[in-house]
């Protein structure tokens, strides 16, 4: 109970059951003031339920939710200083922009002149000073987004919840809004809790990300930590792209394991998540495409460091995507492996049918024990 | 026949029933009525063009009093139908689950399968001097003698509200159904209490449905005939009754036609005023639902 005011939002052992379904299962976390926190998970993992509990639209079956150190369990949604940007924004179509923003201020009984000043102020802060008189349907997607945020921020909330607000935008605008949201968060210096199933949104914007699955938090950490040091097979598979093989452990030695995959090639990898594996355990191995080097078979074998894993195969196809291009390599044992490739359009580019050697450091291959009944 | 001609022919054929309906059942009768209304009877079987039938209406207070009474009572019925219908529509559209919604809607519809006459007769069975309610009140000893509950304005209004409320509920349900629940939640989330959310968000959003329901209900009520006669008796003084009287009892078609036009003009005027006051358009309300 000492430094609780440092946290804008705390959830302690929060659970929510709908009948026999446990949507949120014993989730605990705290969010430091002024940070950007994302909850990342596939649809149906309980993240929306968690957010609705924070906003007050659902009551937790067990546990406590504290905002600025004070429990809000008995507080109705309209009394909580937690504002929410809805998935489809829920701007009021029968009011113009100014009225939309003023709505919350009027609810708390702010004076007319004060409302005018605050609305004008917040419109300037979101860089849309002249849209006050416009109707909602006259705004573009990105403008609506910013108005929805302004409508909440004008009330100076302790926490701003965002429920996948970028989902409805097209790709180009979504990329731009990611950066803009991050900048807005810096500018307002308010705690943002962002819910998404899009890992790129979570990684780009957040200070901390919680990966949620089946109602539980799998891992909470900085984006880089999640990406490079996933704590579970789910996180390794869900955050970022990865080649994924299942296999069984042949031998283990201090944090390393030699694994033979189901298709029959063996590799050395790091055991992830501090698990201890034994010989014969079935595991899943993850290797990210950007850590795999693909070299033409005719080139002299590069100075392969000892302990590196390597594999020969033929290029099956090229997946051209500008700077994020990949090659799809079919190994001798028949698996398809994705590896990053630089495709410049020149003669040195890989072509389908080329023999290539794939190499990666054993430190970049992670294995996790297969969970019983897991996907 | 080339495809374009064929397309045109099929369009004409498809449009024909509608055109015939409008022309034969709406336009022609109204022209006939208009001609009738503008004929003055100067001697037996001698007619002259003139506005005498309309002037007669203005000179006879009982006529325009009846029209005003019909108008105000119809407005009252409309208001009551809105007040009673809104919570029902809100419940069906927003609170009831997917499955019970259809059943509830059906329950609202079922009374419509029975004719107006039978439904009015149902009320008569309940409310007459020897009816169910009078009998029940006597049986439990609340009143000494039989009581006549028919033939007064309250009964007429209750009967009319009952008859028309469905036409209020249907457009309300369809507009409220189109409202995103998140909008109501946003209303609470931004600090509004239940009353603020209702007044500033739900009602403004439902306004097209409210106006369209009110127009339909008002028109139906002002033009209704059976319910006021059966429940209000001879002294219900409904304007349609006056028109009927002119046509059938007094065989004064000229004056009846004029009254018909006056009723149409009056109700249209009220609807126009209502649209102006609520800042809605006919295209945005009735045409949508």
What layout of secondary structure does this protein have?
The complex is a heterodimer of chains A (375) and B (289).
Chain A (H helix, E strand, L loop, with lengths): L6 E12 L2 E12 L3 E5 L6 H9 L6 E6 L2 E2 L10 E4 L11 H11 L4 H14 L15 H13 L5 E5 L7 H18 L2 E6 L2 H7 L2 E6 L2 E6 L1 H6 L4 H6 L4 E11 L2 E6 L4 E6 L10 E6 L5 E4 L12 E11 L6 E6 L4 E5 L14 E6 L4 E5 L6
Parallel strand pairs in A: 3-8, 3-9, 6-7, 7-8, 13-20
Antiparallel strand pairs in A: 1-2, 1-4, 4-5, 9-10, 11-12, 11-14, 12-13, 14-20, 15-19, 16-17, 16-19, 17-18
Chain B lengths: L2 H35 L1 E5 L2 E4 L2 H8 L1 H35 L2 H12 L6 H12 L4 H8 L13 H25 L3 H9 L4 H29 L3 H7 L6 H11 L3 H26 L11
Antiparallel strand pairs in B: 1-2
Helix pairs in contact in B: 1-12, 2-12, 3-7, 3-9, 5-10, 7-9, 7-10, 8-9, 9-12, 11-12
Description of the structure:
The complex is a heterodimer of chains A (375) and B (289). With 375 residues, chain A is of the alpha+beta class. Chain A folds into 2 domains: 4-234, P-loop containing nucleotide triphosphate hydrolases (Rossmann fold, 3-Layer(aba) Sandwich), CATH 3.40.50.300; 241-369, Nucleic acid-binding proteins (OB fold (Dihydrolipoamide Acetyltransferase, E2P)). Chain A has helices at 47-55, 97-107, 112-125, 141-153, 171-188, 199-205, 223-228, 233-238; strands at 7-18, 21-32, 36-40, 62-67, 70-71, 82-85, 159-163, 191-196, 208-213, 216-221, 243-253, 256-261, 266-271, 282-287, 293-296, 309-319, 326-331, 336-340, 355-360, 365-369. A 6-stranded mixed sheet of chain A has the order 6-7-8-3-9-10, sandwiched between helices. The longest helix of chain A has 18 residues, at 171-188. Chain A is globular and about 75 Å long. Chain A starts with 6 loop residues before the first strand and ends in a 6-residue tail after the last strand. Chain B has 289 residues and is mainly alpha-helical. Chain B has 2 domains: 1-37, no CATH class; 52-278, MetI-like fold (Orthogonal Bundle), CATH 1.10.3720.10. A two-stranded antiparallel ribbon of chain B has the order 1-2. In chain B, strand 1 (39-43) and strand 2 (46-49) form a beta hairpin. In chain B, helix 7 (153-177) packs across helix 9. Classes of the chains: A alpha+beta (375), B mainly alpha (289). Chains A and B meet through strand 6 and helix 2 of A and helix 8 and helix 9 of B.
């Amino acid at each position: 109970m000492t430094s609780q005011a440092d946290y804008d939002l705390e959830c302690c052992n929060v659970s929510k059951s709908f009948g026999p379904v446990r949507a949120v299962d014993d989730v605990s976390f705290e969010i430091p003031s002024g940070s950007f926190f994302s909850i990342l998970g596939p649809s149906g993992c309980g993240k929306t339920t968690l957010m609705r509990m924070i906003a007050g639209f659902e009551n937790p079956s067990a546990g406590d939710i504290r905002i600025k150190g004070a429990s809000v369990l008995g507080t109705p949604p309209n009394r909580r200083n937690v504002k929410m940007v809805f998935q489809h924004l829920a701007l009021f179509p029968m009011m113009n922009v100014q009225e939309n923003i003023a709505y919350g201020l009027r609810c708390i009984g702010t004076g007319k002149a004060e409302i005018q000043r605050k609305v004008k102020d917040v419109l300037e802060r979101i860089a849309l000073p002249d849209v006050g008189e416009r109707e909602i349907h006259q705004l573009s997607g990105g403008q609506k987004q910013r108005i929805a945020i302004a409508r909440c921020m004008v009330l100076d909330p302790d926490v701003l919840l965002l429920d996948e607000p970028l989902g409805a935008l097209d790709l180009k605008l979504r990329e731009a809004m990611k950066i803009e949201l991050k900048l807005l968060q810096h500018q307002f210096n308010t705690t943002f809790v962002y819910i998404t199933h899009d890992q790129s949104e979570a990684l780009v914007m957040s200070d901390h990300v919680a990966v949620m699955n089946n109602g539980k938090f799998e891992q909470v950490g900085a984006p880089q930590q999640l990406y490079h040091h996933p704590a579970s097979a789910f996180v390794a598979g869900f955050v970022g792209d990865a080649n994924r093989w299942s296999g069984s452990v042949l031998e283990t030695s201090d944090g390393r394991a030699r694994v033979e995959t189901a298709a029959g090639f063996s590799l050395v990898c790091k055991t992830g998540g501090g698990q201890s594996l034994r010989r014969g355990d079935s595991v899943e191995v993850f290797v990210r495409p950007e850590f795999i080097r693909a070299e033409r078979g005719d080139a002299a074998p590069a100075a392969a460091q000892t302990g590196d894993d390597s594999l020969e195969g033929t290029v099956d196809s090229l997946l051209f995507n500008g700077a994020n291009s990949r090659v799809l390599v079919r190994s001798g044992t028949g698996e398809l492996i994705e590896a990053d490739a630089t495709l410049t359009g020149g003669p040195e580019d890989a072509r389908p049918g080329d023999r290539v050697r794939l190499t990666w450091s054993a430190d970049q291959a992670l294995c996790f024990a297969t969970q019983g009944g897991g996907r | 026949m080339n495809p374009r001609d064929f397309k045109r022919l099929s369009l004409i054929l498809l449009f024909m029933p509608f055109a015939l309906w409008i022309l034969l059942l709406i336009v022609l009768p109204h022209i006939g009525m208009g001609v009738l209304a503008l004929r003055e009877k100067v001697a037996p079987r001698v007619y002259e063009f003139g506005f005498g039938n309309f002037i007669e209406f203005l000179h006879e207070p009982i006529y325009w009093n009846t029209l005003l009474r019909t108008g105000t009572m119809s407005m009252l019925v409309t208001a009551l139908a809105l007040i009673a219908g809104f919570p029902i529509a809100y419940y069906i559209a927003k609170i009831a689950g997917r499955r019970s919604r259809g059943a509830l809607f059906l329950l609202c519809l079922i009374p419509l399968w029975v004719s107006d006459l039978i439904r009015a007769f149902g009320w008569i069975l309940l409310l007459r001097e020897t009816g169910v309610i009078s009998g029940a009140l006597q049986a439990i000893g609340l009143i000494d003698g039989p009581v006549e509950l028919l033939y007064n304005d309250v009964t007429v209004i209750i009967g009319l509200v009952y008859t028309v409320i469905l036409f209020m509920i249907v457009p309300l349900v369809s507009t409220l159904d189109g409202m995103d629940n998140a909008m109501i939640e946003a209303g609470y989330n931004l600090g509004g209490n239940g009353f603020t959310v209702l007044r500033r968000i739900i009602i403004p959003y439902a306004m097209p449905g409210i106006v369209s329901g009110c127009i339909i209900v008002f028109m139906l009520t002002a033009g209704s005939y059976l319910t006021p006669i059966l429940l209000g008796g001879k002294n219900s003084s409904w304007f349609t009754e006056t028109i009927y009287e002119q046509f059938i009892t007094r065989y004064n078609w000229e004056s009846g036609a004029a009254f018909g036009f006056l009723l149409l003009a009056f109700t249209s005027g009220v609807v126009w005023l209502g649209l102006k006051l609520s800042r809605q358009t006919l295209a945005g309300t009735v045409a949508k639902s």
